[in-house]
Amino acid sequence: MAKPFLVYGRPDCDDTQRARAFLDERGVTYEYININEDSEAEQFVVLYNSGNRSTPTIVMGPDDNRMILVEPSNEELSDALDAIGYEDPRQGGRI
What we know:
Blueprint lengths: L4 E5 L4 H12 L5 E4 L4 H10 L8 E4 L6 E4 L3 H10 L12
Parallel strand pairs: 1-2
Antiparallel strand pairs: 1-3, 3-4
């Protein structure tokens, strides 16, 4: 089974840092992948984003309800978490 949340980003990207802070605030456990240090991850991001290194590119949700967001706002992230039925595990919920 694939990991439910993958955040492809760069440490010098303000949008990546904002999205990670938002996910942290919501109690989301995710794997952060720095595309500056992982050529396969960079290739995925570039291919998915029509040749651009757009970050963050976030893969979220279980295999049967997977979605990919590119440079999402906090509102878009919140809507996506709601759409996949995410509940903050700190509140007793599960994904």
